[in-house]
Amino acid sequence: MKVSVIYADIHQQVWLDTEVEPEATLLNAISTCGILRLFPEIDLHQQKVGVFGKIRSLDSHVDEGDRVEIYRAVTIIDEE
């Protein structure tokens, strides 16, 4: 089944499509798509995750077409 995983840092946004098994969890989708290699600073023990803007636990199941989101703290850049 196809799901997407997205993440944004202060420099770029990444949207990765991935295939997971029918009983996959958010953690399975995140692990399968390779985003943790692209962003080694992601700490799933500290950062919240969700689907379509709603926070969910890593062991929540995903459905076909879900957009799994990895959230980070908001960063304020002072340009003065």
UniProtKB/TrEMBL annotation:
InterPro entries in UniProt: Mopterin_synth/thiamin_S_b, RnfH, RnfH_sf
One Pfam family in the UniProt entry: Ub-RnfH
Family from the record: Belongs to the UPF0125 (RnfH) family.
Matching HAMAP family: UPF0125_RnfH
Protein name: UPF0125 protein QWJ08_07390
Source species of the chain: Vibrio agarivorans
